[in-house]
Write a structure and sequence with these properties.
3-stranded antiparallel beta sheet, mainly alpha, 77% helix, 13 helices, 3 strands
Length: 476
């Protein structure tokens, strides 16, 4: 059986490893890209040497001027690009360093929270035993249960009355003459029309017996509103009683532990949540920088493409092709050496280009796998699967299955589906006397969390009519 934190921690470590692999590959692609540009410059130099050897002074000068101009412009663009790349790299390193520091801090806080949660779990039986003998606690528990039952009944009645209003109100709302008078407020102090309009409205009201219908419709619509307000008041009362019950449980746990473990756990959880928010922002920032970095390292940025164009246009000119052909047709050893140098450089250019293309494909694949892992982690955090209460029965989530995800053999959706199927929520020890249905427990241990900014256990309401209603917590 895996704990949620073990599982999440292993996935996060795999993501960190993949990020390091991606960073190293990005550096390798950048080195290859720079080498490719260097080979092209050296080939341009070799062409100039060949031109000087084969052509007369004027023709060679013209050709060298064109090659020098192309090389100078390419070098200017590459120098600018290198400066931009350096700034981008520094931003990326700073972001990664900040992320690493935050992740380390989070791990420390998580370990402290886990220790406090385990201590609290160990004391459950003791606290249960104390409260079972506490008449004041037992009386408050009975009061709380009564308040909850009342709130649930009131919420159900409110829902029923709202459904009744919707069903019975259709006939009224489908009558255009009735709705016309109702919206004008006819028959109420709010009606302000006079003269002919008032006379015509009176005639329409008599025609459809509006006064009787208005009274019935007003009652039909008024009851759900009153019931909703009553249900809301009952829910507030139940929440207050539940808060009192949580105080008993928390105080008993504090006495047993010698410290307020609930407050400690919730404080640590709050800090972890804050760090998670910062990590999320950093991840988005790093993703943006990573995309820009990948563009630079692969030579897809505008400056590199312009520099490449300047060199390639010159190297593909007809005069240079003629020089190459002429040199190969003459027996002179000097120009043959230059041609050999050009051919050797071309082979190295082709090889560097092939390796760079392969690395770019791998880079895109790693980026896709990293995105899959990141999405899984976001889902884990959003669903609270990294909490103390979460466990997983499928141990392959941190071994074989995770390895398949990292390699790209399965998608993040496949992994997530397996994780959801094997997810379980463990119960704290004890007989649930002290924390019935999670009342007073920290959120990470299955409780309802805070109420009004306090770290004490709270009352949870559910959504129904008009935004009010009542729902008890998960069964413990």
């Amino acid at each position: 059986m895996l704990t949620g934190r073990q599982t999440l921690g292993t996935i996060e470590q795999s993501l960190a490893d993949l990020r390091r692999e991606e960073a190293e590959l990005t550096k390798s692609i950048e080195r290859s890209t720079r080498a490719l540009a260097d080979f092209q410059e050296r080939q341009s130099d070799a062409y100039r040497d060949l031109a000087r050897f084969r052509l007369d002074t004027d023709a060679a000068g013209t050709l060298n001027t064109r090659l020098d101009s192309a090389a100078r412009e390419a070098r200017r663009l590459l120098d600018k690009r290198s400066a931009d790349y350096k700034v981008l790299g520094e931003q990326w390193r700073q972001s990664e360093t900040e992320r690493s520091q935050l992740q380390k801090k989070r791990q420390e806080l998580d370990a402290a929270r886990n220790t406090a949660e385990n201590q609290m779990d160990d004391l459950m039986e003791v606290v249960d035993g104390r409260l079972e003998q506490d008449s004041a606690y037992l009386a408050q528990r009975e009061t709380t249960e009564t308040a909850i039952a009342t709130a649930e009944a009131a919420a159900e009645k409110a829902r029923t009355s709202e459904q009744d209003r919707q069903q019975k109100g259709k006939a009224y709302e489908a009558d255009p003459l009735f709705i016309y008078l109702w919206r004008r407020g006819y028959g109420t102090p709010h009606y302000a029309h006079r003269g002919l309009v008032r006379s015509l409205d009176r005639w329409v009201a008599g025609l459809i017996r509006y006064q009787d219908a208005r009274a019935n419709y007003a009652m039909l619509t008024g009851i759900p509103e009153h019931m909703a307000l009553h249900a809301e008041r009952c829910a507030e009362i139940a929440a207050a009683e539940q808060q009192k019950l949580a105080e008993f449980s928390r105080n008993a746990m504090t006495d047993a532990a010698g410290t307020d473990l609930v407050a400690e756990i919730e404080t640590l959880s709050g800090e972890i949540d804050r760090i998670d928010g910062e990590l999320d922002k950093l991840d988005r920032q790093i993703e943006t920088l990573s995309s820009a970095f990948a563009e630079f390292s692969s030579g897809e940025d505008a400056d590199f493409r312009k520099a490449e164009d300047h060199l390639s246009v010159s190297l593909q000119a007809d005069e240079l092709k003629d020089l190459w052909r002429a040199a190969r047709e003459t027996p002179s050893p000097e120009d043959e050496k230059i041609v050999q140098r050009i051919e050797d450089l071309q082979e190295r250019i082709d090889q560097a280009a092939r390796e760079t293309r392969q690395d770019r494909e791998l880079q895109r694949d790693i980026g896709r796998r990293r995105a899959e892992l990141s999405e899984v982690i976001k889902r884990f955090r959003a669903r609270g699967y990294g909490s103390w209460e979460s466990t997983f029965s499928d141990e392959s989530l941190t071994t074989v299955l995770l390895g398949e995800l990292v390699k790209g053999a399965i998608t993040g959706a496949d992994y997530w589906a397996r994780a959801e199927r094997s997810h379980r929520r463990r119960k704290p020890r004890g007989r649930s006397v002290a924390f019935p249905k999670g009342v007073g427990l920290p959120k990470s241990m299955g409780g309802f969390g805070t109420s009004g900014g306090s770290s004490r256990g709270g009352f949870r309401t559910g959504k129904s009519f008009g935004g009010t209603g009542f729902r008890t917590g998960d069964t413990f």
